[in-house]
Amino acid sequence: MKNVGIISVGCYLPKRVLTNFDLEKMVDTSDEWITTRTGIKERRIANKDERNSALAVHAAKDALKRAHLDPAKVELIVVATISPDSNFPSVSCLVQKALGAKKAAAFDIGAACSGFLYALTTAKQYVQNGLYKNALVIASEKITNLVDWADRNTCVLFGDGAGACVLAPVAGNRGIIADYLHAQGEFGELMEVVVDNSVEPLTQEKHKVHKPYLVMQGKELFKVAVNSMADAVEIAVQKAKLKLSDIDCVVPHQANDRIISAVAWKLNIPKEKIFVNIDKYGNMSAASIAVALYEAIEQKKIKRGNNVVLVTFGAGLVSAANVVRW
Ligand SMILES: CC(C)(COP(=O)(O)OP(=O)(O)OC[C@H]1O[C@@H](n2cnc3c(N)ncnc32)[C@H](O)[C@@H]1OP(=O)(O)O)[C@@H](O)C(=O)NCCC(=O)NCCS
Q1: CATH T-level topology, domain 177-325
Q2: Active-site residue (options: 11, 113, 165, 249)
Q3: Residue 112 CA: which ligand 1 atom is closest?
Q4: Which end of the chain is flanked by fewer CB atoms within 10 Å, N or C?
């Protein structure tokens, strides 16, 4: 079996910044509440005409450029998203068209905030078994389209963005050395976007009154998130035949800085080893880890030979972790 690694990363963040002070003018909240409860100071919001697939294309081009890979040579495109432009065509097909990646197979994965790691693990299998020589994995979200901007419980938490990476065989003992994917459907009601068009067709009349907004039971989700992420790290590290003390850097899903701190405390991992950028972007769902990974590399928090853990949880509930030897 080939070792498969992340040979480049890319990123795109919409230009528009929405600060906590801006939110103070929109709902009954305060910078102090948001900062102390979540660690978020600001987030990016895509413009109305800036579609999810456009964010994905920007991030993909960045990753391909850094990998010196011609789009025409890309063999597989997997996009993790829960906020696609439309039900179909998939975002991956829109990206394939925009890049001119005519040779590539393309599909989307919907695993909410765990999407990037689900996509990474899925795409890795295809490269590892030799079906494809490379894969372009993208996590892209325009999640703020699903947010009720009058609901202070949720609107302060989310932001838009996209991250991407190129996977290819790597030499030596480098690469993605352990994977762990998990699901707990019994906690599905803790975070939902309900569109009941599976029961009855969504008529034009219903569409006017029913907005498919994101609803969340934050407190309950918090507890499950801490336990699932801590378990995922332990299992993935064990699968990699490493100890927690061998880990140089953890890149967690950025949902709440208090969740990240609680996971660090539970696992007895020093917070300095954990990469956090939630203050700038909030929770970008699937894109959070992809963007955090990009920034951790840019800031040289991840260096050649490091053992890196990527870990996440999200609506579903789904959790996942990967160990990557850089
Ligand atoms: C949402 C979350 C930040 C709330 O923090 P919390 O400490 O649990 O806060 P609580 O739910 O106890 O709410 C405390 C109070 O703040 C209020 N509140 C909620 N949002 C507020 C806001 N933006 N500004 C001011 N007050 C707010 C609540 O109404 C509540 O008021 P009450 O006590 O009068 O009823 C936190 O629970 C969380 O991050 N949960 C996980 C969410 C998550 O990860 N989602 C993404 C999954 S991928």
Answers
A1: Peroxisomal Thiolase; Chain A, domain 1 (3.40.47)
A2: 113
A3: 48
A4: N
Regarding the beta carbon of 191 and ligand 1, being less than 6 Å apart is answered: yes
Site to substitute for ligand 1 among 37, 226, 288, most atoms within 8 A of C-beta: 37
Asked if 113 is an active-site residue, the reply is: yes
Helices within the chain (DSSP H only): 20-24, 31-38, 52-66, 91-99, 115-128, 152-155, 204-209, 218-239, 257-267, 278-281, 287-298
Comma-separated ranges of CATH 3.40.47.10 domains in the chain: 4-173, 177-325
Q: What pLDDT score was predicted for residue 241?
A: 97
**pTM, full prediction:** 0.95
* Residue for token pair 């030979």: 305
58 counts as catalytic: no
Q: Is the peptide bond before 317 cis (omega within 30 degrees of 0)?
A: yes
Q: Which residue has the tokens 């999200």?
A: 314
- Give the nearest ligand 1 atom to 258 CA: 39
Handedness of CA 200, 204, 205, 208 (dihedral sign): positive
- Positions in the chain whose pLDDT score sits under 70: 196-211
Within 10 A of 30 (CB to CB), how many other CB atoms are there?
Answer: 13
**Per-residue pLDDT, 210:** 55
pLDDT per residue over 132-191, tens digit each?
999 999 999 999 999 999 999 999 999 999 999 999 999 989 999 999 999 999 999 999
Report the pLDDT value the prediction gives residue 152, as an integer from 0 to 100.
95
pLDDT of residue 17: 98
pLDDT at 208: 58
Q: Span 4-173: which CATH code?
A: 3.40.47.10
